[in-house]
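FAQ

Q: What does a record look like?
A: Structure on top, sequence underneath. For example:
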């Protein structure tokens, strides 16, 4: 079986590709670079702005996984950046849907990354399941547009799954290195009140969940792709410091300073969501390798 991945060179895409190959899948990426079909991972050219996709990419695929999207925390949120964040998640899948509608493909399933930002940047201490209401800030707007774009694939009769991902904990990238760097320099501290909930998942578990979603034909719709036990931000900082064997002695970083330096994007660190993976637990046979943040951090740190 061949799995075609958008955003395959990113943090999740790279590890996902490795695990798929280990399990005997054939893996291909849609890439802005020239087509290369000679390596372990085939690369097919596409240009979203020009509306171009190598026709072989979709004709040869059995499953499609959509990870493409500009980094939500890479730059401050100007109006132009907000538009770019949404477009990078929607235009790509809209192009694929347009192409699929015009060819005789044999794609059996489609899984798209999504975000728990769908519920808003800050839901306080509310317990958030998949039935929780959509938020009304930019994060929810972006996440909603992302999911709505995926509906175009569903309308073609392809089984469609959306994984609303929380904070992905990984050694080489994502939030964890940024979180732990100040701790390693002896200047680590909780952010804001520190009481905001962080819904997290280990990199290997989110990748295994993507694989589970294409193998399990009963999975469709939105799932909260988080570990079973969310933690408060101050606890995440404390446990990280313990694993690195560095002290925490500074007071919390004031919220007003974070808003001053980050602007509207400060909601990413000051907000929080206590997200529960209700559908994964109740409706699937997926088993997590890391259910407690202590175990995940032991695996990833120092």
């Amino acid at each position: 079986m061949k799995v075609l991945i958008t955003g395959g060179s990113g943090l999740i895409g790279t590890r996902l590709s490795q695990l798929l190959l280990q399990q005997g899948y054939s893996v291909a990426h849609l890439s802005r670079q020239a087509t290369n079909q000679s390596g372990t991972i085939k690369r097919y050219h596409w240009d979203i702005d020009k509306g171009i996709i190598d026709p072989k990419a979709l004709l040869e695929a059995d499953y499609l996984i959509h990870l493409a999207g500009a980094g939500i925390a890479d730059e401050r949120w100007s109006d132009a950046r907000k538009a770019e964040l949404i477009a990078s998640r929607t235009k790509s899948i809209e192009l694929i849907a347009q192409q699929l509608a015009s060819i005789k493909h044999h794609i059996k399933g489609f899984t798209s990354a999504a975000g728990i930002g769908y519920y808003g940047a800050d839901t306080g201490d509310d317990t958030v399941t998949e039935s929780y209401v959509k938020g009304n800030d930019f994060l929810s707007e972006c996440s909603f547009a992302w999911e709505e774009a995926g509906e175009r694939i569903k309308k073609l009769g392809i089984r469609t799954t959306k994984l609303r991902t929380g904070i992905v904990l990984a050694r080489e990238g994502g939030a964890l290195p940024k979180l732990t760097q100040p701790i390693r320099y002896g200047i680590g501290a909780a952010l804001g009140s520190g009481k905001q909930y962080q819904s997290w998942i280990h990199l290997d578990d989110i990748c295994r969940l993507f694989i589970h979603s294409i193998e399990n034909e009963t999975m469709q719709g939105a799932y909260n792709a988080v570990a079973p036990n969310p933690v408060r931000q101050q606890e995440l900082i404390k446990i990280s410091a313990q694993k690195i064997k560095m002290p925490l002695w500074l007071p919390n970083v004031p919220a007003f300073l974070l808003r001053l330096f980050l602007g509207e994007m400060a909601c990413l660190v000051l907000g929080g969501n206590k997200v529960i993976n209700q559908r994964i637990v109740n409706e699937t046979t997926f088993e997590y390798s890391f259910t407690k943040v202590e175990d995940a951090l032991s695996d990833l740190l120092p």
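Q: Is there anything notable about this one?
A: The mean pLDDT is 95.
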